[in-house]
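DM from R.C. (forwarded with permission)

"hey, sorry to bug you on a friday — could you get me a structure for this? deadline for the figure draft is monday and I only need the backbone to look sensible"
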Amino acid sequence: MRNDIRRSNLDKFGVQSVVFCLSLLFSSGLLPAAVWGLDNGAENVAVIVNASSSSSMSIANEYVALRNIPPQNVIYLNDIIDAEVWDLENFKQKIITPIYQELEKRRLFHVDCIVYSADFPTAIKIDEHVNAFLEMAGVPEENQIVFGKVASLNSLTYFTRQVMAEDLSYLMLNGNFYMRNRVDKNHDRIATLLLEPFGGELMDQFKEAIQQFRSVDYAKAIEILNPLAEKHPMQVAVQYWLARCLAKQGDVDATVQRLALAVQGGWVYRDYLLRDPAFADILHDDRFKSFVQQIPNESTSFLATTNFSASDVWGPNGMRNGEVAQGHRYMLSTVLAVTRNRGTTEAEAIEGLRRSVGADFSQPKGTFYFSRTGDVRSKTRASFFDDTINQLKKLGFRAETALSPVPRNRTDILGLSIGASSFQLENQGIKILPGAIVENLTSYGGMMATKDAQTRLSECIKAGAAGSSGTVAEPLAIINKFPHPNLYLHYAQGSSLAEAYYQSVYSPVMLLIVGDALCRPFAKRVEFEVAGVAEDGIYRDTPIFKNRVPGEEENAKVPSIVRYDVYINGVLQARLPSYTEISVPTETWPDGYHEMRIVGIANHRMLWKTTKVIPMIVNNKGYHISAEVVGEARKQLSQQFELSFNFTAEVPSVGQNSEQNSDDNVADDSVATPQEPVVPTEFVVLHNGRVVANAPAGAAHVVVDAQKLGRGRSKLFLSAKVGDQWVTSLPVEVVVTY
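My reply, with the result:
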């Protein structure tokens, strides 16, 4: 089955026809070859840069290069005050509103994560929100100290929709519905999962259905539940209760259908289902038995690890609902680096990012350590250590407690949970493996501007951790404000660093998370091929994308593909089933350079991703533009430099290729007259999607200020305006060293 992306779901983006003009460019070595991206979700990340900070630009440059992030996904902000602590209004007006305006303008509706480069405020004062919340919730004065009045930059970004809508529920101590360890007072997670899917009127309807079930009126319960299931197909609680009702009626096929939808929504608790009296009458039916044996069997002490999407609506029971009114949407967020005050240096930050990117898919062997001491900072989480350690061991990992803040002379640290006001990572004989998370529960771990003896999260990054965290205000010893030990369990099951963190914190409001949001050492790489891609990169017809079929020995190791996501110039164009053949027409595209990305999505609940990046040159109208640095190509640059460029247009003359006269079969010998030459009206130089230099019509070179780019590796594009379209050159790679 071939699928033209015009017929998918994104015709409005103007993706129309296909013309490849690649053979000459590939054979001459001018066009970059198609490459496998190890970006692991780079298309879904927006990188935010402080345009006034050389450190912010330099760290972003390296991260964009390491992760192969589309230029479209890099957003530069101006007017960022040089201060560690901001107020809420400045955050709204100068940070989050411009970000979302750019996401909408660039049609980046698929972005699931916002990462900040260095030199942004790390702490935001939210006094007005907290005061209003305390009054609304009627919190007694003696308990108000529990709710701090400072939030982290990344947490307010995570809760953007609630913050901007003045929905103060984000301040609750269990305000994060994506959190995976939702245990009620009786420690019966299943009860919470199956009894708390909604709020308001829908919850009243749901309770009525349960009452009808318990009154043995299964038909009435089904009548109430069916509309809820139609509106909220991924809500596990609704599908499971429908399955219970249908099982009581003896309808095995319908029961299995509902349970299949429950599994699709996240039900992975086979043993619980087999013990459920509602299914006792069909327990031995072959159809039921065959289906149930395929259901995963996770522990029932916590919700199972799952993937994240910014479009998902998370209900009160931690499962997905179908409408915004019945839950919350979030946006993953971390800070890539803090390089001022008590942070790292720029070089340390970049080295940390390089290590974390290199850890992707590496399946590292080592040990997860949990510090168990008499310190209240350790004891706050200690009661959960054993359960997490046991779960990690069931998955085949090594995990153990350490009787000191830092386990000495251990060179296999995959993860480390510390609880101490201060500690030393140097001179302890330890080695933190690439990709590891190291975090600490203490008061001032994320307060980057204060001067006291407590150890800051930056020390963990310096020591080699891919990510760490700390609170930006006094949190008290309240576990809800810190990562649950299951942080490491989610990570070990293939979550990204950002997913692992936000699945493990009930109330991340104060938590500053620093590190590579995309780092995913325990994920498995998706394998697929692009039919027709030759080793020399020459395309002779429209690409067709197919699954790679793993060999027999790899079947258990390589996840299959559930779908392909197709991006053109960083914008999502289609989501297609894995069996689809994809044609990508380009007849309405501007001539010049474009980039197509095919992302294979794993048939796994974590939806792991691998990207194929395919450079393309379109030649519909005969317009060509080339550019290069004057002097030695790819030279190291420090100040101003020149880009020379050449624009050509292959325009046929009027009268050429005329047809013969149909009346007398005599060739038309009229004289060919040339058309007016095509001359661009403007030239611009683009760096990460923004204009950094321009030149007028008729120019042959343009001067670029290297300091506008930031240090490190960058790709520049020269674009010429012809009519109402821009013709873009191949990327010009430069290295800036000022």
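R.C.: lifesaver. The first strand starts at residue 2 and ends at 4.
me: no worries. The two ends are 53 Å apart (CA to CA).
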